[in-house]
């Protein structure tokens, strides 16, 4: 059995390690300003403690939305390499010719478990978690659902073609939909359900054997339904109902993580555990012009610009950390430190394998690995910088930096441009999305800083251009020009100074070089997995027929 891999002289103790446990925690839509260690209005003492005892990843970059980030974790590729340019509809699943991370670990003797959100396809059994390398799956297939009764679509969506339970308990090839009265009470709030499942697996885990657990909590994705009273009472002074429930869900997440770590200690697994914590994208901002029916998100990314669905730093730069109580895994000298180099969410694939002293398979998919292991660099104190460039969103035949109808009609003002970083500069080519910087006032109600311009109104022309990188529908949108926008995200993380605004020749030449590199890296890509579909598309008649017959969302092909 391989030991934990350290770029140091292995001690006798570490070389005799007989068990490895990896708990990969993915929070949902937690913003840059939504955890206690950066915002004292939010209570997350257990997350804060883990972070302070581990190594913070101060520049973990994700996709601009949920499913692409999760697919990158599982494949080690940029999302467009498996056909994800945005969240797909139910028709879209990660291509089956990719070997996902849990499959590699399973082949190396690990017990593998997925809990919580999947969002990577379920139109047929082959796309579901236990067919992609996990031994078990307890959770939901969609982007979200009701926290209490586990129904999709959430009720705030109004009348829908079909609605049913999305809660599944799968083992191997046996897919079992569960729901109904058994799980329809506040005592079975999703956080408790997924925490209890994680604890059950930990208690029953075979002694001396390896485990990888992917724990993808629902917290804090909408709907912001009322959280358990013990948590909403903590934030009784918050005047905005969505933000109050959002804050309560963050603290509930924190307690769920505490209960999982307590179970690891009780089970005698703690000393052999590596915890990875991240969120899947930036916080979802409140709408600029909310209505009673749709207020938008309740997340906050201050002081960063933008949020979920955008390519600005507030949409893709997130908090993350790695932790282990074992100094043979994370040396004591690194506790409380930070790794400040760029990390992309695809880097988890090779990094987890490197930490476990396992080889990255050479035939894990049709396109080369985009992920770069940062394990050795992190343990070396960040002297080395294994990643110097990062492709946030491509520019190619399928995504040419011009807006579609679905982008223009979306009240969240999502990105429809491309973006590329070559440290420390970041280039936007086309509209990066909602460009507001949103702060919180004394009552923690979201307000837009007046010094930041609102998103410009676009013209009514809604046809994606094929003749030009920017169609007529993009007129007036920020960065929608022949040169785009360029920022120094090291010196100007709030992205307040466009270095191309004054026509400086040095920066203009730099932007041209970066654009050429962006186009070069974007070429190797399949067609979008389901064309211009999104996760707001109505389900097919065939999919609804299964829901109407069984009361639950299940594969329909």
Approximate strand percentage? 15-25%
Could you name the ranges where pLDDT drops below 50 across 5 or more consecutive residues? 6-16, 442-475
Secondary structure tally: strands: 18
Helix/strand/pairing category: alpha/beta
What oligomeric state do these chains adopt?
single chain
Helix content: 10-25%
Count of helices? 13
Q: What shape does the CA trace take? A: globular
Q: Tell me, rounded to a whole number, the average pLDDT.
A: 88
How far is the first residue's CA from the last residue's CA? 40 Å
Radius of gyration (CA) equals: 22 Å
How many strands, what sense, and barrel or not for the largest sheet?
10 strands, mixed
Structure description:
The protein is of the alpha/beta class and 557 residues long. The protein is 22% helix and 15% strand. Strands 1, 2, 3, 4, 7, 8, 9, 10, 11 and 12 form a 10-stranded mixed β-sheet that branches. A 4-stranded antiparallel β-sheet has the order 13-14-15-18, covered by helices on one side. It has a two-stranded antiparallel sheet with strand order 5-6. Helix 5 runs parallel beside helix 7. The longest helix is centred in the middle third of the chain and has 26 residues, at 241-266. The chain is globular and about 65 Å long.
